[in-house]
Write a structure and sequence with these properties.
Length: 435
């Protein structure tokens, strides 16, 4: 029994084909026609609804000039000017099965009330010879009202010995002065056009002839910088001569775009340049290499020979970052930074292992010999001085003892005064005894 059921299911699945009705089978769901854009259509499996007030018509006798059979619906909305429209049919392909009709019928309808047959009126010729022999057929509608939705009713014909209305695929195109899309007129404005390089500038786009929701795409020198429903764009860091434009797209059933004229910015940029970072020996100086278009100010000023010179002498006692501000004649400011790194005057190990193995038994301080009068002091965590010497030579090195006794494993803190005559010669740090 299971095998028989499987066979029956297989047989029926191979012979039964289901066709869905076209989505635009009814006036309430017409396919939108956009100007000069071919839209595919089909009457295959379309139906009619014959009743008072129905979308297709009140009687099977037809609507205006042809008998209703398998109707499909299209619509177009005129622009703000109105005028003439034509509907062209092309690329028709008919079902050539015996008994099927071989041509289409169509008319343009104005509806006083949408999809209420009692309010329909024909505003075009009734075309009943839309077929492959003619090659292309046209509906012509003149004097259409602006901003009005019109409908195109397309029907498969059935003549003579035909037993089924024509089932056809086709392309349908709307054109003419009444349907030609009028692009929006787009204008943009800015909060300023003469700006400083760091100023925020806000641009606003406005469009006429756009009755739908819209999107705006912003461009700087032809490159997209923002897109969205907001008609404003704010940014900074512009360069002199930058060109800003906006493309405004009116959405709706037939989107259309238009681009504004450009706004050209005049940007005042003092172009501050503080120069490259530099490394100098401890206790030495360097000349900063600043440049720019305007007046100068450096900070911090404590270790500089001048705060207003483009190339002051810098004598920092620690690694220091200097900021250069250049102010143009127009009052615009530009900023840049440079860091002067200091080499350490001395360097030392941070651990001591006084276990008489010959490794790290003494605290070694590199380059201390360059400071023969250096004062070296070591303190424990409570601030008690456990080592103190002036002139750190090999025979005066610290061995991790205090008064001849080994100190416990712990972290100790040192202060080394290189005796340079100023605060630049003070070096501090920590060393850990490991037993």
């Amino acid at each position: 029994m299971k095998q028989l059921l499987s066979i029956l299911i297989l047989v029926f699945s191979n012979v039964i084909v289901f066709h869905a009705q076209p989505g635009n089978d009814d006036c309430t769901s017409p396919t939108t026609l956009c100007a000069n854009q071919a839209q595919p259509g089909s009457t295959q499996d379309a139906t009619i609804s014959v009743c008072i007030g129905c979308s297709d018509g009140a009687t099977a006798a037809g609507n205006f000039c042809f008998t209703l059979e398998n109707t499909v619906w299209f619509s177009f909305t005129t622009n703000s000017i109105g005028g003439d429209a034509q509907i062209d049919f092309s690329n028709m392909a008919f079902d050539l099965t015996a008994g099927f009709g071989s041509s289409l019928e169509a008319v343009v309808i104005e509806a006083g009330v949408a999809c209420d047959e009692a309010t329909y009126s024909a505003v075009s010729n009734c075309e009943t010879t839309i077929d492959g022999t003619v090659g292309q057929s046209t509906l012509t509608a003149s004097g259409l009202q602006p901003n009005t939705t019109y409908y195109v009713q397309v029907d498969g014909s059935m003549n003579g010995a035909d037993t089924n209305p024509a089932s056809a695929m086709f392309d349908i195109t709307a054109s003419g002065s009444a349907v030609d899309q009028i692009p929006p007129t787009v204008g943009i404005s800015s909060s300023a056009t003469d700006v400083c390089v760091n100023d925020d500038v806000t641009f606003t786009a406005n469009a006429s002839d756009c009755n739908f929701s819209s999107t705006v795409e912003w461009f700087v020198n032809g490159l997209t910088v923002a897109t969205g429903a907001d008609n404003t764009y704010t940014s900074s860091g512009f360069s002199d001569g930058d060109e800003i434009t906006a493309t405004f797209t009116c959405l709706g059933s037939c989107p259309i775009s238009s681009t504004s004229a450009e706004i050209v910015l005049t940007v005042d940029d003092p172009m501050a340049d503080a120069g490259e970072d530099v490394l100098i020996p401890f206790g030495e100086s360097t000349i900063l290499q600043g440049s720019g278009n305007g007046s100068y100010f450096w900070g911090p000023i404590d270790d500089l020979s001048s705060s207003t010179s483009p190339q002051p002498l810098a004598s920092p006692d620690v690694t220091t970052t200097y900021q250069l501000t250049v102010t143009s004649a127009g009052g615009c400011e530009s900023y840049d930074e440079v860091t002067v790194f200091l080499e350490s005057p001395i360097f030392s190990a941070n651990t001591l292992t006084p276990n008489d193995d010959g490794l790290n038994d003494y605290w070694e301080i590199g380059n201390i010999s360059s400071y023969p009068r250096a004062k070296v002091s070591v303190y424990d965590r409570w601030g008690q001085k456990v080592f103190n010497v002036v002139g750190y030579t090999n025979d005066k090195r610290w061995d991790g003892t205090y008064k001849g006794l080994k100190l416990p494993a712990a972290t100790y803190f040192y202060v080394i005064d290189l005796q340079t005559g100023n605060d630049k010669g003070i070096v501090t740090g920590s060393i850990t005894i490991i037993l």
